[in-house]
Structures are given as C-alpha cells and as structure tokens.
Task: structure prediction
Amino acid sequence: MKIILIGFMGAGKTSVGKELARDLKLPFIDCDQEIVNSLELQSVAEVFDLVGEEGFRQAETEVLAEILKENSLVIACGGGVVSDPKNLDLLQGSKSKIIWLNAGFDTISERLTDDTTRPLWRDKEKAKELFMERQPIYKNLASFEIQVDSLRISEVAAVISDRVKGD
Result:
C-alpha cells in the first residue's frame, strides 16, 4: 500500500506522515527532505536560495519519480508538488491512495506565524494566492480529503489509517 499525503504547506503532512507510517508499520519518506538530501544541502530554504524555485521543482520531479517506484510506504509531498503537470501525471499514475490534508488558510497562518524556514511563506499575499490556486488541484487529485483544522496529528493519522484499512 502506497499512501501519499498532499496539501498546502503547514497542513501537517510530515507530522501526520510520520505518525501514520508508525501506525501502519510502513517506511516514511518526506519528499522535501529527499530533495534537500539529493542536493547535499541543509534545508529547503537553502535549496531555494541556491537554485531558485525552478531548480527546486526540477529536483522535486526527479525525486518524486524515484520515490514512486517503491511500494508500501507513506510519502509526504511538498505543498507545491501539484504546480508541475509532470508531477500530477506521476501522482495520478502511481496507483496510490492520495490523501489531501485540507487546512484553512487561517489555520496555516496560525501554524506558520513564526516560521522562517519556508521560502514561499515569506510573502503572505503570494502565499494566499498559491493557496487559492492549489485548492482545486488538491481536490481533483485526492482519493479523499480530510479537513484537519480542528484535529490533532494522531487523530488525522487514525482517520487515514481506518480509511485505508477499510479499502
């Protein structure tokens, strides 16, 4: 079983993914961390500073293609994975459960208030535009969606676990 978590930055994909993988006894891979590792850098911000968003997105497609060759794992994708049509094709063809962690912009804003590590959060107005652009893409791509605003990490992981075990 391959489970892919999608959603905007700050929705909880990495935290939920780790918990879910532990619950299901599956390996966990964070796409953003794999990109950072593949470029032998320290952070997503460093990747953006060094190669820009375009370079990051190119590395993201390469890393995603490699990760999707694996079976039986939980994958947390970066929020912008849906911005490249090649990634959408990869995800749609992956025979995976794609789960959208849907958090409202106010919730994301609250969670990321003091976060300086996310390059695309530096400009809040631009982040809001990206949020609005990506919502319908997440919705169309997802096998199912979970509204995460009022749920704890463990609750989101439990909902997903129950759902995928039932399918």
About this structure: The helical segments are 13-24, 31-38, 44-67, 85-92, 105-112, 124-141, 153-166. The longest helix spans residues 44-67. The chain has seven helices and five strands.
